[in-house]
Design goal:
The chain is built from 3 helices and no strands. The chain is an all-alpha fold and about 90 residues long. It starts with a helix and ends in a 14-residue tail after the last helix. InterPro entries: DUF7667.
């Protein structure tokens, strides 16, 4: 999950307890907007990967997979987790 997803979950949880402030409502809207952009990027890359596979273009497909890994590599199981083994 991206940090925006954690924040969206947090705001949704808060909204179950009380009404959100105007700032929080604005933040939810921004989170949903960012999520839509992220989902469109993922969907586009998945579709291109399928097209590359159908065409039999493995070089193109590998390039798309690298892009997918880069995009989804931003995702962490836990927010603010460090990727290094210190």
């Amino acid at each position: 999950m991206l940090p925006v997803h954690w924040r969206l979950a947090e705001l949704w949880t808060i909204s179950r307890q009380r009404d959100l402030t105007e700032d929080e409502q604005s933040e939810i809207s921004a989170c949903l907007h960012y999520n839509a952009i992220y989902a469109r990027k993922l969907s586009g890359l998945y579709n291109l990967s399928l097209a590359a596979s159908i065409c039999g273009d493995t070089e193109w497909q590998h390039d798309i997979c690298r892009q997918l890994e880069k995009l989804t590599g931003q995702s962490n199981i836990y927010p603010n987790s460090a990727s290094s083994n210190a």
